[in-house]
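Record passed on here:
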Amino acid sequence: MAHFALVDDTNTIRQIITINNDDCGGGDFPASEPIGQAFIASLGLTGQWLQTSYHASFRQQYAAIGGTYDQQNNCFVAPMEE
């Protein structure tokens, strides 16, 4: 399974979805990301969807709702605890 995080215009993660690996071309990141993004768009889901790794194989850690995406370092940052 492939996981994608919806990142809003403030780089906050709003939602995470899972799609089949075949819907990402069956390949590995980063080649799988644009294919997965096209599939997600074909479902009518809009916005910026970025692939995230459940095993933290890329982008430093698995995305978490309420966390952020650091564009400069191309990684997900965990939400701040209160």
Notes: The two ends are 32 Å apart (CA to CA). The chain has a mean pLDDT of 95.
